[in-house]
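Quick one, T. Sequence first:
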Amino acid sequence: MGERELGKKEEEEKEVCIGWVGGWKMIACAGELIVLGNNGFSSLLRQNLNIPCGSVFARLSSSQAAVEQSTSDGLTVEGIIANGWIIYDEDESDWKSHASAIAQSIHLIKKRLRWKKIIPRLEILSDQLSKPDLWNDPVRAGKISREHGSLMGKMKEVNLFEQELLEHIDMIKLAREENDAELESEKELEALLAGEHDSCPCFIEVQAGAGGTESMDWASMVMQMYKKWAERRGFGVTVVDEMPGEMAGIKRATIRVDGEYAFGYAKAEVGAHRLVRMSPFDSNKRRHTSFASVAVIPILGDGFSHVQINESDLRIERFRAGGAGGQHVNTTESAVRITHIPTGVSASCQNERSQHQNKASAMAVLQSRLDQLEMQHQAEMNAEHTQSLTDINFGSQIRSYVLHPYRMVKDHRTDYEVSHPDSVLEGDLDGFILSFLSCLSRQR
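Structure tokens:
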């Protein structure tokens, strides 16, 4: 190879920078287009200059930049401006105000960049970059490429700004749709809790069934389940009365639950609850079945008519409180039991420190029980079946909690079941409650 030919080949292989496009350095070398990333690595796109690869890149980029962006429902920046959304002060603005302010800023930027002239200029430059003989004049090619890259960079920045605005609008609209779905769900829930006393607070009473220590332990577990459920819902929980078992658990207990629609939700739990497990109290590790009954009593407000209680119809007994006790709780007769002689209904309280407080709490429970008895009597007279007032008996358990030989909790009224009893015993009862309320609503 002669010196002239060698010099020509070296000249052909000499790298010539022809410009920057979108942060990428473009170099012409030995008849090839090399694209260098700005991180210094040269993993690169190589194409013979006889194939207008650069023109494809330029055409795609400029056409993509020229496309007017829009939200999922077709709203564009120009459309936002055309809507004439008012721009408020910052302290009273909403999303439309923000969108309008940003859209006008984008519009002003486009105007100063002479946006409408940039797009046809890019088309001209793209056509020039697509010509195979362009690279015969590297200086001219570099100038065209630099101008193209500069315009593309400006368009890219504005388009990213525009895209971010439109994506935010899409997200806001989606969030509003989700809120509408939540509102619809709230309306459905209100329909399920439309009973006369559903909005009232309530007493939840748990009593151990036959089975000795096993059932007393189970009754304690059920009461803990309701306390945790109430706390999950943000309800207030107050222990009114509790009679501990001889070895473990409780014989019976009463709690007061205060919160919006406390009775409406809790009424789904009325009935017998059955537990099947390997007994922790049986040395032979046999499987045992235990029962606990649950009653739920609404606490009627001042707007409801109460059963009138005459002082002469009451028998009040005072005794020493049981349990762990405090400094003097077990040394004085602070516990109170009140019996309504005409009906035989009684209520007791021993958890407060003073006899007066226990008497007031016991009277509140007694009043609610007598009110419920009257409501039940009226329901029977009207031949109406009210699920929240049905008799509790062990022959028709409403729900089974099986911990052995398999694990499952099943509601026998609705067939709703789950395979993770631990979460249910931790207070996750909403699935069972809503399923029951839905069935009750359909029956009506």
